[in-house]
Design goal:
Elements: E1 2-5, E2 11-14, E3 19-24, E4 28-32, E5 37-40, H1 44-57, H2 60-70
Antiparallel strand pairs: 1-2, 3-4, 4-5
């Protein structure tokens, strides 16, 4: 899970494994595999760094499970 900030300043926590895309428009848009999209204050680079840090913290077994889920 990673914490992101909506444009109104409200924090939200989302499952990093559900992120499908991160777009840079004037604002950053995070798209999930569920079809939901969120505009956030963090930059694309910030979101990528948060996801990478989240994945580094996963035990090796769960990293492999997460990679397999992405391939489905």
């Amino acid at each position: 899970m990673i914490t992101l900030t909506k444009l109104n300043g409200q924090e939200m926590v989302i499952n990093a494994e559900l992120i499908e895309s991160v777009e840079k428009t004037p604002d950053t848009i995070v798209g999930l595999v569920t079809g939901k999209r969120f505009m956030v204050r963090e930059t694309v680079e910030d979101v990528v760094a948060l996801v990478m840090e989240y994945r580094r913290q996963l035990p090796p077994f769960w990293r492999k499970v997460a990679q397999n889920l992405k391939g489905q």
